[in-house]
Amino acid sequence: MLIPREIIEEIVNRTDISDLIGSYVTLKRAGSNMHGLCPFHSEKTPSFTVFSKSNSFYCFGCGSGGDAITFVMKAENLDYPSAVEFLASRAGITIPQDKNELANMGMSRKRVYEMNLAAAKFFRENLFDKSVGFDALNYFVGTRKLSMATVKRFGLGYAPNDFFALTNHMKKLGYTEQELIDGFLCGRSKKGHLYDYFRNRVIFPIIDVTGNIIGFGGRVMDDSKPKYLNTSDTPGFKKSKNLFALNYAKNHCSEQLILCEGYMDVIALHAAGFENAVATLGTALTQEQARMMTKYTKKVVLLYDSDDAGQRATDRAIKILSEVGMDVRILKLNGAKDPDEYIKKFGADRFRALLGESRTGFDFKVSRALANLDLQIPDEKIKASAAICEIIADSASGVEREVFLTKASELLKLPIDVLRNNVEHIIRKRKNEQKKDESRQAQMSIRNIGDRINPDAVKFVGANALEETILGLLLIYEEYRAAVTKGSVSLVADDFVTAFGKKVFSTLFEVYNSSDEFLPAMLGQYFTADEMGRLEKMRQSRLSLTENGRDVLDASIAALKAEKEKKLSAEGGDKFATLRAKQEKLKNQRK
Question: Would the pLDDT of 214 be above 90?
Answer without folding.
Answer: yes
